[in-house]
Specification:
Order of helices and strands: HEHEHHEHEHEHEHEHEHEEHHH
Largest sheet: 6 strands, parallel
Number of strands: 10
Distance between the termini: 35 Å
Number of domains: 2
Shape: globular
Helix content: 40-55%
Number of helices: 13
Structural class: alpha/beta
Strand content: 5-15%
Strand order of the largest sheet: 7-6-5-8-9-10
Length: 326
């Protein structure tokens, strides 16, 4: 796609229809309300069992609403955005179930009239994402000083992730704090320029880490994980940090705030760098890291998510076989 080449258009409807006809699957699952939903709408109803969808991103509230609400009252924004939500409802109309990964997005879809919504939070690979014991090695590799507080963040370097908030928060903290941002994306050059406005070495942006084990090592070694995006439908990297025994600092809006537990989970007013800085100072207080490590064993496993989704599929297929409405 033009802005971010890690995303691709799904346009070959003929190939999708042919594949579904050949496989006759029990479940057709689409992961976007756009081209994937369009492709599913062209399928013959007798070529599959049930149709479901996952709500992975809320583009209406992520991009359009903030722009509108900076210029107009909220009620005007609601009116302008209603056609967008009507399109979302239409794209999900043929689905027996629509899955969200957070309570926040569950409530959003229900309020906007989407039917058959199920909240099934994601989990993480706890075999990989777990507390590790080589923090000193990782810190040395990243040039984090012995007396510095090591903050980490990870994800796609895109405008909606609001990395500017995390970088600006560093300007409200002492030089004892160092932030490592792990990721790649279209905003990399702009973010590097913004980070350069701070004293040298306060913020470093390093490339995306593909290997789960390597990323888990980074997360586990950090004193705290920071997250700036208030538009997350879940916030997977936050869940991974929790499983690694690292305190998390997250905005008070969006799905990311639902990961973590008391004592190692610090909320701040979304999009406020100074508020984020205050929460970071709380997160690195004495004893917090040890508490986060103790809580890591309670992190949700990805298999929990998979089993809940499969159980829902079994219920939907049983209803269809019995001729009951889903």
């Amino acid at each position: 796609m033009p802005y971010d080449d890690t995303y691709h258009w799904l346009l070959r409807m003929d190939k999708i229809r042919a594949l579904v006809r050949a496989e006759a699957p029990d479940v057709v699952e689409h992961h976007s309300p756009y081209f994937a939903a369009l492709a599913a709408s062209f399928l013959r109803r007798d070529s599959y069992g049930v149709r479901t969808a996952f709500w992975h991103s809320n583009h209406v509230d992520t991009f359009a609403r903030p722009w509108l609400e900076r210029r107009f009252p909220a009620r005007v924004a609601d009116l302008v955005l209603e056609p967008g939500w009507a399109a979302v409802r239409s794209s999900f109309r043929g689905c027996e179930a629509v899955f969200t990964a957070s309570r926040a997005e569950f409530a959003t879809l229900v309020v906007h009239g989407v039917k058959g919504v199920h909240c099934v939070p994601f989990g993480v690979d706890r075999g990989e994402f777990r507390p590790r014991g080589n923090a000193s090695v990782i810190r040395a590799q990243l040039n984090v000083g012995a007396g510095q507080h090591f903050l980490i963040a990870g994800g796609r370097l895109a405008a909606e992730k609001r990395w500017d908030v995390a970088i600006d928060a560093m300007g409200h903290l002492s030089e004892a704090f160092k932030l490592i941002i792990v990721g790649d994306g279209p905003e990399r050059a702009q973010l590097e320029a913004r980070a350069a406005s701070l004293p040298q070495g306060r913020v470093a942006i390093v490339p995306f880490v593909k290997a789960r084990n390597d990323f888990a090592e980074l997360l586990s070694a950090a004193d705290a994980y920071v997250h700036a995006c208030p538009y997350e439908t879940f916030g997977l990297t936050v869940g991974e940090a929790v499983a690694c025994g690292t305190p998390v600092v997250v905005p008070d809006r969006g799905g990311a705030q639902e990961s973590g537990a008391g004592g190692a989970h610090f909320l701040y007013a979304a999009l406020d760098p100074q508020a984020m800085a205050r929460s970071i100072e709380l997160a690195i207080a004495q004893g917090v890291k040890q508490h986060a490590i103790a809580l890591a064993a309670h992190a949700r496993d990805e298999n929990d998510h998979i089993l809940e989704v499969l159980a829902t599929y079994e219920q939907l297929l049983a209803k269809r076989s019995a001729g009951q409405p889903s």
